[in-house]
Each structure stands twice: as C-alpha cells, then as structure tokens.
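Figure 2 data, in text form.
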Amino acid sequence: MNKILLEIRAGAGGDEAAIFAGDLARMYQRFAARRGFKFDVLDSNATSLYGVKSLVAQIQGPDVYDIFKNESGVHRVQRVPKTEKSGRVHTSTASVAVLPIVDPGQVQVNPGDLDIVFFRSSGPGGQNVNKVETAVRITHRPTGIIVASQVERSQYANKERAMEALRAKLYEQKQKEAVGEVSELRREQIGSAERSEKVRTYNFPQDRITDHRLNKSFHNIEKIMEGDMDKIVEAFGKKKGQS
C-alpha cells in the first residue's frame, strides 16, 4: 500500500510527553523526506513548548505501509527534559498508529451518518491562519470517529483528505471485527500509552534506542531522531526474511 495515515499522541509524562511526540513527528517527517515520500500534516494539536498533544499526517510513497507499519505502538523516552532544572531523568511516552488508506470502494460510508463542520485552519498556538473556513472536521456518528484536515486550500480538497482518513479508520475497524477483536482495535495499535506498554525505548543518557520486538539496540540516537531510521527499517526487513 502506497498511502498511510500516521497518528501520534502524547501519553504519560505531561509536557515532556508532548515534546517527545513532536520529536517523533519530526523524525518521521525527515525520514519520509529522505525516502522521497510526500508527508502532509492533516491535523495537529500543538503546545507552547514545541511539542504536540496529537498529530495526524498522511504519507504517500512506494511501499510506505510496509516501511512504516512497525512504528505502531507505544514509544518510551528516557532523558532529562528541557524543563527539568535538577537534571533528573524522566520517563515519558507517546503512541503511534499507522493505518493503510484504502480505495473508496473498499469502505462504504453513508453520507447521512456524517456531521461535517468547516472552520478556519490554525497555526502554532491556535491562531487562525486563514480568513476563509477551508478546514474540515467530520464526525462519523455510528462509531464516534472524528477526523479532520486543514492542509489544503479548499473545502473540497480538505473534505476529500478527511474522508480518506475516515475510510482508513473504518477499514481498520472492519478488519478487526472480522476476526472478533473489536475491543482490542485501538489497544493493539497504540496501547494505553502507559509507561509499561512499549515497543521501543529511546534512552538519551546512554545514546541507545532499543526495539523490544527485535530485542536489538541502535546507537547514535541524535542521528536517528534526525530521520536516519534506515537501520531500524532494515532490521525489521531482515526479521521478516528470517520468519
């Protein structure tokens, strides 16, 4: 699949969790740029400390789902926050979900089930950056799923983006229902964002990123956070080849 929906949400850890979520978003954006992928932020809830409480992006490129799918889960960071005056190491989390965007024919959506609201797109800090209400928020009443897009310049284009995101989420739900795992739908993807649930730990004092599914560590953490994720992606590829 060549188009995905990427969701990042700050978990346990307050402001530091939001900063870490923002760090992950930038890491993925830079990695996407290195691969020549198109990366568009559809919706985000930013903080005043250069972090994000939540962010939804669409990434498009060859085999992008296979490359990003292993990012799903709870990511844990251990470091001294910028806001920490005593030099104490904090542990915080952020959750990541990667969903494939599917063709419209694969998921039927009843227009009568949708509440559609148009609003002005906003920049950092929440200030309106457009005078025209081009941003779109869609609520799917039967499931309570809410999606939004404010990346495009027209209502129509943002509505199409938001509908793609909605179909991706409904498709995921449909797939889980088919195997009787409705209650585990979001938990399997992003967990509860508690510190104990983790797929990967970013330990800054020890310059080490450990993926707990691979049971493997990677060093030069600053370089990886700048988007140099190739070694991690390749490690999952090797694991798949061995299975």
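Caption note: Residues 155-178 form the longest helix (24 residues).
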